[in-house]
Amino acid sequence: MSIETAAAAAEVVHRDDEYDSREFAMLRRMQEHHFWYRGRHRFLLDAVRRHIETPARIVDLGGGCGGWVDYLAGRSGFPIEELALADSSQVALDLAADALPPQVARLRVDLLNLPWTNRWTSAFLLDVIEHIPDHHEALRQVYHALKPGGTLFITVPALRQFWSWNDDFARHQRRYHRREMIELGIECGYEVVDVRYFMFLLSPILLLSRALTGRKIDKATEEERRELATKMHAVPAAPINELLSAAFGLETPLGRLVRFPWGTSLLAVLRKPKA
After folding, report:
1. Mean pLDDT over all residues of the chain?
2. CA dist., res. 10 & res. 85, Å (int)
3. Domain residue limits at 34
């Protein structure tokens, strides 16, 4: 399906200072195969099946190259009336073109100036708001776009203690504590349905990897830093990737049955009140 611009083209500008457009090609490769995206998708889908209202009208906001939308379309297991990928980047939407089912609309929108009121039953902000200086405004915009009773699913990097060179490279504004996410949701008018950490089992390996690479990053030039970061975000060799995928996969449904005390990521489920 062709791209639909939900606002005047001149009004939709991708902010490279929040997410560098040069990283979308790498993101596309990671979303298809990387163990982290496999684990996140599985953990998220388990939550979606428990909390979504059907038949669903769904938009993935800041959805980049469409990895989550493609995954959801093929594995949802519930009726979807409408499914859309929305992003401010023309580069991302173009890269998503051949990855998405034909019924999925690609919408070019500005997350801080959404054109809808009471439009969607569910929305996703997956590793998006940590890039945005005014995350309150982003959540308020989504609030207006959701129907009363609609659900917002958010994933973000968790805990300041886990801040590393990768957060700087990815242009993160912040990492989130569970308490901070609950307060943010309430301040923006939502009912808090659930907030929990994930990526718990593999967190020691991730932290060790970031620490070892951080030593090289500190001594590298800007171009060398980009090359090192690109290598660190590459999909691991197949046996390692499969092993890590299996380990991360254990968090579903374990992470639903037991609240992990920490994790390198956080999942929030927020709901717009019905009245």
Report:
1. 91
2. 20
3. 3-271
